[in-house]
């Protein structure tokens, strides 16, 4: 009697199992293909992406490559790398300057395009590949693929050869590097990226160290504009670990920079950036340190290596060996450094001074960094006129970090400030043009650098104040809340009182506009310290003469800032607590001492100011 029920239950269970298995097989089709044949050429980019993004299946490519990486290097996954703001360095709080963009290989002159033969002058990317001695073979191997003079025909031919399976792993890597080095953002070759990524995954076991470095560089360049290249990142990391022992100097340098650029993507894969960077740094040290420099690195690659050092979190013993090697390489290539090279390398030197063992001024790393900075300053006077405004403002910030050391003796200070003044005096016209064309944040960082150097040039400061006032109507308040306190603090440090700047500050952050809450405690302390240094109260005499508008509004804002700062003090407020907190403003508005402080009381200063006896200020104003 129970037989039919049992049969029905068994049939239902069997159908459920078959349905589940078929569903799992449908979702993980790509994974099963790679388990059966890891070297099979994928046929569709969508299938490739499904395989890479399948994190749940233990047979997926991502899971297997991550496990292989952990087994090889012996490290565990790490959280995503994030850029950290700088803290107090010396006696000043250094504002964080975002990393500049990558330095790209130079475009060859028009005459060098003739090397490809008559009719091939439009194939610019192949001429770029010929600039690097390591990649000369790539250009020669790609030349047979050129049917016509146009890059469109070249793209069609490469696509045809890829469809026939005639491109090996090394040619694919060289082609990716060549496409990434082309300055033409509308190049038809870029439509090959999905196909080349697809083919590279199928030929991954054949990749050597040179091909891995080339493909990694392409992934770093196109990580935002063509995210499809990130699909090959797990494969490239695995091959990089397995072929690291065979990398040459240029390939190891290229891979080191690419890993630094891809730090966020590596974090999402659960891989430790520091372990991989330290392994590549060890390879560079083994190949280069202690040997004669017979073939110096190209300036763009040398600048990128220095750029990557503060982003990778290298161990101090590796930094201690790499920095002197970079300094020696830079000395060999000093006459070839272009404006963007100088700006990027100065940014890297300044950032390195604030992290790790280099922050100890007596360390050997810091001495080498200062040697690099001094070399770059000498080149700065030659290339400053060709610098972009953003590059020149970055240089001013970097000079303020590198050559600001208040722990030095008075004689050393005078000598250092005289040297910086002689350099800046020679390029003051270029600085003035840069200050008059940048945004609020870049302007504040440049003025901070001048204040750190104690370089008092009233003409430059007048240009900066005029630019700040002009930017106020078109800049968001959250940006001005960072930039304006920094500018006002810098003017106070240089003992320059600009009435237009102070009036703009008071009008923008006046109580009635409800904008004071945008200001952080460090910015409030810096503004109060600046107002004390300006000694605004001295302008008010006992006869209550009519006050200028900038002075009355600045006094009103000062009272509002004091009330705002009182919100962060514990109750009851002790005598001298407000003055003690204000004294930290001398370090600048970017100090992190009060970063975690929360208000302890309400109401805000907008209400508190109205309760104070400040009515006389508005009654005696000269409009």
Describe, in plain words, how this protein is organized in 3D.
The chain has a two-stranded antiparallel sheet with strand order 1-2. Strands 3-4 form a two-stranded parallel sheet. It has helices spanning 3-27, 29-36, 45-53, 61-73, 124-129, 136-142, 151-163, 169-181, 193-202, 209-221, 233-243, 249-261, 263-268, 273-288, 299-312, 316-332, 339-352, 364-383, 389-402, 410-426, 428-435, 440-452, 458-471, 477-493, 499-508, 521-534, 549-566, 577-583, 605-610, 615-619; strands at 88-89, 92-93, 547-548, 621-622. The radius of gyration is 30 Å and the shape is elongated. A hairpin with a 2-residue loop joins strand 1 (88-89) and strand 2. Helix 10 runs parallel beside helix 12 (249-261), helix 17 packs antiparallel against helix 18 (364-383) and helix 19 packs across helix 21 (428-435). Helices cover 60% and strands 1% of the residues.
Summed up, what is this model?
With 623 residues, this protein is an all-alpha fold. It has helices at residues 3-27, 29-36, 45-53, 61-73, 124-129, 136-142, 151-163, 169-181, 193-202, 209-221, 233-243, 249-261, 263-268, 273-288, 299-312, 316-332, 339-352, 364-383, 389-402, 410-426, 428-435, 440-452, 458-471, 477-493, 499-508, 521-534, 549-566, 577-583, 605-610, 615-619; strands at residues 88-89, 92-93, 547-548, 621-622.
